């Protein structure tokens, strides 16, 4: 009787111990798998001036395999591979734009311009912008770079909802992309305050903030010392998106545009 | 004999099971405590234009209870409470500058100027800058705001190692703080490239990055639509600090200053 009881008790204790250990191990493993699935939030810093590289492949790849079946870009937005004084870039690699890069590598061979076809700070910025799938908010003091203009245009053609807030004075300057974007049907608002609308940020799909000192002009991209931070932070992006709405008042205020455009 | 063996085996199994469970619990608890001690990295976004508030209390508090026994500020850097067109701020609260705020609240009563003594985007920016304990790296296109100039001056007097990189053209403009800081013995370098040194960031104690669209000028602070992001990110800050060194070449290159200063 006693022998049987001790045997049963011993076996039960061993089983319980093993079961609890196995359970603990399983819970730990499942948590680890879950953590692996949810990649850490993206953060990167791009430095300018950017090396001058050909970005045609990126834009062609977007036209060919865009998020929602891209329509061909208009002729006016054709190749624009210009050479300018050399510059350095400090971009680091990440898995952020890997999908775009694979498409780009096959399209790269199609451009025969003499510019280098490698990666640069501008090409990475373009890839981040082109990664938009549903929305793109732009709050830009100055926007005259043709490559970035074409990227925004392409996204608009592919059904990405784009809202632009810009500065009243700077949007009418020579070479500004704002007029072209507005003519393509993109919502554009300009600030009416006394000071400048001096922000320089973009929000991709309400998930990724691209912000820094860089105005989206070729002069700044190719010549100035600039930085652009790319972060995924729900709280910061929530506040920043609110500021886009309050600046542009897209829903409540009628379209206000500089008569020069 | 058998009875004794089963009894021993049972007791050993129970003890082992309990010991393993206790160990697992202890390891989990210790990890939780460690996570609690390491607060999440700081991230905040400040919006400008800033409400015009009195920042005298902040600067007085720094003078009185600075990190390493502050010397009195020179008379030229006295109170500077000016009124200007009203503005709004979008600063959010955080525990980041709680220590400074407690000292400030007692010092606030000492300033009798008619400006509001509450918090604003400028006051929060000042608090972040004044939180420097060992080093402050400034990479600023334009720096003319007197309150921020006094803050940097105070930190220098208190032994904080300050390095400034600025733009060649803008540092000689009327009202620039760069000349005053250099005369106080702060290391200043300016970029010699063809483009602008257009960065607008500060790095506090090699741990906190303050970056965005804001030039440190009163015009921008009080009138422009601007944003400033405050982040603690080791990787991003590492890369950004490297850029300060490579821009200014503090260690290798002799002091280069605009002759107008």
Automatic annotation (TrEMBL), chains A, B:
<keyword id="KW-1133">Transmembrane helix</keyword>
<keyword id="KW-0442">Lipid degradation</keyword>
<keyword id="KW-0812">Transmembrane</keyword>
<feature type="region of interest" description="Disordered">
    <location>
        <begin position="63"/>
        <end position="87"/>
    </location>
</feature>
<feature type="compositionally biased region" description="Low complexity">
    <location>
        <begin position="63"/>
        <end position="79"/>
    </location>
</feature>
<dbReference type="InterPro" id="IPR001736">
    <property type="entry name" value="PLipase_D/transphosphatidylase"/>
</dbReference>
<feature type="transmembrane region" description="Helical">
    <location>
        <begin position="6"/>
        <end position="30"/>
    </location>
</feature>
<feature type="domain" description="PLD phosphodiesterase">
    <location>
        <begin position="193"/>
        <end position="220"/>
    </location>
</feature>
<dbReference type="InterPro" id="IPR025202">
    <property type="entry name" value="PLD-like_dom"/>
</dbReference>
<dbReference type="InterPro" id="IPR051406">
    <property type="entry name" value="PLD_domain"/>
</dbReference>
<keyword id="KW-0469">Meiosis</keyword>
<keyword id="KW-0378">Hydrolase</keyword>
<protein>
    <recommendedName>
        <fullName>Mitochondrial cardiolipin hydrolase</fullName>
    </recommendedName>
</protein>
<keyword id="KW-0472">Membrane</keyword>
<dbReference type="GO" id="GO:0016042">
    <property type="term" value="P:lipid catabolic process"/>
</dbReference>
<dbReference type="Pfam" id="PF13091">
    <property type="entry name" value="PLDc_2"/>
</dbReference>
<comment type="similarity">
    <text>Belongs to the phospholipase D family. MitoPLD/Zucchini subfamily.</text>
</comment>
<dbReference type="GO" id="GO:0016787">
    <property type="term" value="F:hydrolase activity"/>
</dbReference>
<keyword id="KW-0443">Lipid metabolism</keyword>
<dbReference type="GO" id="GO:0051321">
    <property type="term" value="P:meiotic cell cycle"/>
</dbReference>
């Amino acid at each position: 009787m006693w022998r049987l009881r001790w045997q049963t008790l011993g076996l039960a204790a061993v089983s319980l111990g093993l079961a609890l250990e196995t359970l603990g191990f399983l819970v730990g493993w499942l948590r680890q798998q879950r953590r692996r699935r949810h990649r850490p939030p993206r953060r990167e810093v791009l430095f300018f001036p950017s090396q001058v590289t050909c970005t045609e492949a990126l834009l062609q790849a977007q036209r060919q395999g865009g998020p929602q079946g891209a329509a061909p870009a208009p002729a006016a937005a054709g190749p624009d591979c210009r050479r300018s004084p050399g510059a350095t870039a400090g971009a680091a690699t990440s898995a952020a734009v890997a999908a775009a890069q694979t498409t780009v590598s096959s399209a790269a061979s199609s451009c025969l311009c003499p510019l280098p076809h490698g990666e640069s700070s501008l090409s990475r910025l373009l890839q981040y912008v082109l990664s938009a799938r549903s929305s793109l908010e732009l709050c830009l003091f100055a926007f005259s770079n043709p490559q970035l203009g074409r990227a925004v245009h392409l996204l608009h053609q592919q059904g990405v909802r784009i809202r632009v807030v810009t500065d009243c004075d700077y949007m009418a300057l020579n070479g500004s992309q704002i007029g072209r974007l507005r003519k393509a049907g993109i919502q554009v608002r300009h600030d009416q305050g006394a000071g400048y609308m001096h922000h320089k940020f973009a929000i991709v799909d309400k998930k990724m903030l691209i912000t820094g000192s860089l105005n989206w002009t070729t002069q700044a991209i190719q010549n100035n010392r600039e930085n652009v931070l790319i972060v995924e932070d729900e709280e910061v992006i929530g506040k920043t998106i609110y500021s886009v709405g309050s600046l542009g008042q897209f829903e409540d205020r009628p379209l206000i545009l500089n008569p020069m455009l």
